[in-house]
Amino acid sequence: MCGIVGCIGNRSVTPIIVESLKRLEYRGYDSAGIATLNGAEIDITKTEGKIADLENILSLTNTACVGIGHTRWATHGIPSSTNAHPHADCSGSFAVVHNGIIENFQALKDELTSKGHIFSSETDTEVLAHLCEDCYNGDLESAVREALLRVEGSYAIAVISDNEPDVIVAARKDSPLIVGLGDGENFLASDIPAIRKYTNKVMYINDGEIVRLTRDNVTVSTLQGVNVERLVTIVDGSVQDAERGGYEHFMLKEIHEQPKALRDTMEDRLCELEGSIDFKELRPFEDEIKNIEGITIIACGTSYHAGILGKYALEDLLRIPVKVEYSSEFRYNNFLSGNRSLAICISQSGETADTLAAMNEAKAQGYLTLAITNVVGSTITRKADEILLTKSGMEIGVAATKTFTAQILTLYMLGIYVARLKKLIDVETSRHIITSMKSVPGLIESLLDNISDIEKASSRICEADCCYFIGRGLSYPIALEGALKMKEISYIKAEGFPAGELKHGPLALITAGTPVIAIVPKGKTYYKTLGNIKEVKARNAFVIAIANASDDEIVKYVDSVIKIPDIDELFSPMLAAVVLQLLAYYAAKDIGAEIDQPRNLAKSVTVE
Ligand code: M6R
Fold this sequence. Notes:
By secondary structure, the chain is of the alpha/beta class. About 35% of the residues lie in helices and about 25% in strands. The model has no long low-confidence stretch (mean pLDDT about 95).
């Protein structure tokens, strides 16, 4: 987590850094700071709180043309202005911003303290500033290199020093870092949108590399000092992607962008007539994929929930075992050899540390690795054997919405693709699935046109202090996702259960009036779920059902119904997911929570 930026040019960098930090705020927002260098000395301003709080205390007359900035999600040390970055050495000659964790910081701190260095924060990062001071011998890049050779852990850092007022040195290991190239000015950041307003020319920096930026030049080398030639990539994606576009919150905008995200993700991939999926990017791996005998899906949070749906769909289509593992668990488990196995690693950001580490483990065990991600050029795209991109556009709200439904869609497309490769389904069957798939965006549009029942149900939920989500089969992961969305942004206690598990424990939680959201579309488990609804109704729960438009029966058994359009059972989770996103959104709005930036959370979790 945390976001870093840097800029060196011929104009005042303060507004540029503030603007870039605002676009990185999704990575962490408990404190922020900026260090500028005006040719003679470093000036640091930092505070607890958001970028807006930092903006309020920044000097508008600062004309410095070199600077670095940071938005923090606390790991070592509480959120406070002392622990906020940038951190300086004893003399105030070096300033450092850092995203990652320095694992051996205590040993380094002890050593530096014994040499007389005085620390002022509780952070791991501060050792980097003192190490640079300790290693400096007339060349900032060499000092950073020497310092980093002593460091264990993960980092993307940027360093400035008043000894060399026209240079920024940055480096990365296991945390993202890109460089943007301007005209007489250069930038660095944790991701592209942070600097997209200023340039579309970027260089991706790899693990173990150091980059030296001046106004007119950027050089990349390895930690060992070997120069590296790095190609410049021209990026697309408009600046408007990072604007709210008239919506009150990014989350609401992103919920409404789902039809487009799904259409874009399907575009050029669906061959309805042939009943096949054209994943051009997978062609070189067709033989390997055809011979796959097992699949493990690895992901965190919302991506994990998409993974469970993927498991159900893939097992059904491919008739091979599919496991779903939390990345943070998989990486430490004693898993079996991945021979003839595929590891599907799902991460919208492509930067989640646990998922990246789990993917590395899977690779080491012989799995063929396939990443499903939304971010072009993210770390996962450079480490996986194969990549499938969801084309949802940038997602800024911390709560994943449009990327979730696009992940489900991509897993379904993958299922059809592999099933056709393995000759497990005929053209007729896959054509039928593809036809339904194509109708999903339009059905989501119609759902979004009529949300009054969702708003009503959300105010009912807000009156309670907890709520439960139940579903069976394909609706079970949606119950989990509905609960995650609810707790994440509204802070209402919410849990999701397989409806059949209620009587094995959770039923004890149901008291009169407890809201239970039952996801009950027509399908294999409809009547079973109805039975579970009766169980909670018998305990006087307040049941809100998410059911098909044509379901006239459900109203007899529940207190309130939210209708979703009729569609093949396989796709109703995508429609129900949109309802649950809105349910959480309106509950959070009722409560007055900070929807796009929920407390304690960050959009991408780039630390373990
Ligand atoms: O970028 P990733 O998909 O790897 O992120 C995984 C989770 O951190 C993420 O899905 C998280 O659970 C969402 N913010 C929930 O809305």
